[in-house]
Design brief:
The protein is flat. Strand 1 and strand 2 form a beta hairpin. A two-stranded antiparallel sheet has the order 1-2. It is α+β, with helices and mostly antiparallel strands. The longest helix has 8 residues.
């Protein structure tokens, strides 16, 4: 299984939360069609 966790070189503060890694697993099944459909939403 591919690891979709990106470890950041430093911890960031965002909306009261401390962020040190980003989980990109939701992008695993993303298609170009998804990107095109959602790029026009306001």
């Amino acid at each position: 299984m591919i690891d979709f966790i990106v470890k950041l070189s430093k911890t960031y503060e965002f909306e009261g939360a401390r962020i040190s890694e980003i989980d990109l697993s939701g992008l695993e099944n993303l298609t170009a069609e998804d990107v095109i459909k959602n790029s026009y939403k306001q």
